[in-house]
């Protein structure tokens, strides 16, 4: 029997689009209706999506559906109030990130409202899913810390009990054809993240400068999604590599052609993360699926996917730079000996995860039917 699913993505960033398209491809027997809002004007999008949809897409929202699937950016509690028809179907909320653990930039106004919206949406959900334990743990801790600071009539224990049934189910990745890396005397390093402050451009610059000072023979590919305003460290990274006697710059900038991007991944030895935050690290996982060896910090979500041999440690900043430099040096030596390690992420492919999503959806439908709502 076909399951009619209404999917709401209130801030349809690249990882959100990837998740949703993966579900559409890999879950059979589902009829999808999708409403998505573009990933811009963050504060308005976060607070205004319920008003936008309720006023502009009411006919779609009041259609016949078996299940509502919403991202955590959706103002679910308000939307259900504005469109009562949505209260008659079960819902599942998916957290790609949470606003308690998301680092603020200098351009953002400090506000507790994004956190409150995350909390209200989670409490309004029949089922909450997170893409990593790191995401879930920081959300739970953040909610409890916020509630502890409020003055009175705070349902702290009740909220914790309500959210205790949340589970972890990562975004799936597609298998890639991992080509054999050619041997050689130089190490090819990929950095393939959004060109924004939260991906650690300062740490990337510090590591590039350390590689230059050490004289490591490293070829960098600095790629990833770019925006109109970019942290100035990227220009400094480019200049450091271009004037270096030991470093090389193979790719620099966004690779918009999908085939060219896959080719870039398949030609690199190592994928590097310097992130301040990552709730799952899809860019790293995609590169690992293409055969890259991860070099990632020993924090955030990475301990869930990769063993200790792939994680550099030390305090954020100088200690991490030294540890990452040591790991890159080790990978270079291993490449020369043709002994680069392999990293297994079989459990993160859609083939493994799609049946688990299907099971979650079926369970939500069964529990809703059982409740007689």
TrEMBL record:
<keyword id="KW-0328">Glycosyltransferase</keyword>
<dbReference type="InterPro" id="IPR001296">
    <property type="entry name" value="Glyco_trans_1"/>
</dbReference>
<keyword id="KW-0808">Transferase</keyword>
<dbReference type="Pfam" id="PF00534">
    <property type="entry name" value="Glycos_transf_1"/>
</dbReference>
<dbReference type="InterPro" id="IPR022701">
    <property type="entry name" value="QTMAN_N"/>
</dbReference>
<dbReference type="Pfam" id="PF12038">
    <property type="entry name" value="QTMAN_N"/>
</dbReference>
<dbReference type="InterPro" id="IPR051862">
    <property type="entry name" value="GT-like_domain_containing_1"/>
</dbReference>
<comment type="similarity">
    <text>Belongs to the glycosyltransferase group 1 family. Glycosyltransferase 4 subfamily.</text>
</comment>
<protein>
    <recommendedName>
        <fullName>tRNA-queuosine alpha-mannosyltransferase</fullName>
        <ecNumber>2.4.1.110</ecNumber>
    </recommendedName>
</protein>
<feature type="domain" description="Glycosyl transferase family 1">
    <location>
        <begin position="177"/>
        <end position="304"/>
    </location>
</feature>
<dbReference type="GO" id="GO:0016438">
    <property type="term" value="F:tRNA-queuosine(34) beta-mannosyltransferase activity"/>
</dbReference>
<feature type="domain" description="tRNA-queuosine alpha-mannosyltransferase N-terminal">
    <location>
        <begin position="4"/>
        <end position="173"/>
    </location>
</feature>
